[in-house]
Structure formats: C-alpha cells, structure tokens
TrEMBL record:
<dbReference type="Pfam" id="PF24681">
    <property type="entry name" value="Kelch_KLHDC2_KLHL20_DRC7"/>
</dbReference>
<keyword id="KW-0677">Repeat</keyword>
<protein>
    <submittedName>
        <fullName>Uncharacterized protein</fullName>
    </submittedName>
</protein>
<keyword id="KW-0880">Kelch repeat</keyword>
<dbReference type="InterPro" id="IPR015915">
    <property type="entry name" value="Kelch-typ_b-propeller"/>
</dbReference>
Amino acid sequence: MDRKAEGQYQLRERSEHTTAVVGEVLYCWGGAWEGLVGSHDSPTKRQCTSAIDAFNLLSGVWSSQPTRGTPPLGIIGVSCTTINNNIYYFGGYCGHDSCYHNSLNCLDTLTLQWKELQPTSDNSVTKRGFGGMIVMGSEPQQLLVIGGEAPISTITQYHHQFEYIKITGHVDRVRTNEQNIYNLSSGQWTVPSVSGQCCPPTSAFIIERINHNKGIMYGGAVADSGRPTNSIYLFQLSHNTINWECLKQGAILNDGLWPEERWAHASTIINGVSTSPTLVVIGGMEDSTSE
C-alpha cells in the first residue's frame, strides 16, 4: 500500500538512531539524516529532535509525535533502554567536532515529556557514544552502560579495570570497555568491579537483557582498527561486580551455525512461554572500511 499517496506521514531516512518498543508502539528518535545541522545546539537541531517518530504495531502506521521539555544534545550513537512507559537515553555524539555527551535523559511516553536525570558533566562516567545500555536488577532497578567510543580530550578519569584503545585514523578518539551503573533510586553513578573474561574495548555492538541480572553481548567493532567481531559474551551483575564469560564456538551443544562478524547491527530478545530466551540479530556491517 502506497502510504505516501494517501498523505500519511513518511519516516525520514536516517542511520545511527535509537528504537525502543513500549506497549504496542515502536519509538524512533535521533540519528544522522540529511539536512540536520551539525551544531552543538541550534533552532534547527531542536526542531528536529523535539519530535519522536512512532510506529503503531497494530495499525502499521508511522506518525510524528511532538515532545515537551528539552531533548538531549547527543543524538547519534545514543544508547537507550526502557522501563515500563519510560525510555532512557544515555550519551551520544553531538554531530560536530569531538563533542560527545554523558547525560542521562528520560522520555515518559504517556506524556511525551523529557526529563534530564543527569546533565553532561566532567564526572567519573566517560562521555561517549556507540555503546550499549540495559536495565539490570529489580529493587532498585539500575541502568548498566557498557563500552563505546570517546574523545580523549574529555576523559577525566581512566579506570584501571577497563581499557581505552586509540582508534586508528582518529587523533582524538578511543574505543573502550568502560562500564557504569546508574541507580534509579539514589540517582547516583557507580563504577563496578569486573571479573572473568571481560569484553575488549568495543563499539557498535548489541546487548540484550536475559533476566533481571544477566545479559548478552554480541558483535561490534574492536581493537584500534575497528575490525568486526562475532564474539558472544554473557555477563551477570552481582552486587557491584559484573562477571563476564566469553562463549566459544562449539561450547554450546547443538548450537548450529555461528553468526558472522559484524558491527552496527540490530537485535532483540524473544521470550517464549515454553522456550528459552532467543536472541535474534539482523543486518550490520561486515568490515571496518566505512567507520
């Protein structure tokens, strides 16, 4: 069906955006698209980011929804996750120079009101984008942020348990496996301890929540060159320690085909009533030439 002919809203072409499902609606926000001004802040940028695109999964129709409040300045490579009716957004690339953010924002999808939980600041959380974020814990719930790319000039604290590798071809850019936890009850960031086979510095990967304290990570761009990987990691949060396990090909009985190396892909977890959680992955890049 030609929705454009019917005068219905057309979703603009974009990349490096975020998507999140709340109820029967898929929300799409941010990203890089033609015509977006590469500035720190401008009326044009605010106009673009003050609306969120919504896809109704029942009707199959896109619409543009105006939001209230102040949207984040980081718009490219932003990490996002959901809790009930709220979508949380962390960090992201601003769109100009080496400007990255470490702000944490929340969008209430019932009121479409933005709320800044933590502003961008020089704290223990590295300003970065192209990482991942999921919800962990139950009471209190916590946001776990992993990895990404960051400008060297804005790093205020190098944490000894993590790595920061300079990216080839970029004067002021590193890839990291830094991990941070935000407690939604206290409103405080903490830096966890890590154990086991921790992931290397990685960006443009996927992470999904398996249960309240366990998650999975697959693929991404690694090392200084940004080569793609097909590594799969399981991680589990216990108190303030994250234990990592790297799954090797053949380690799982009857695991079938092993996925290809890739980065900048998409994923979801499907939880069946009588089956184990299934990770579904689609798309991505198979080399680092376009990084």
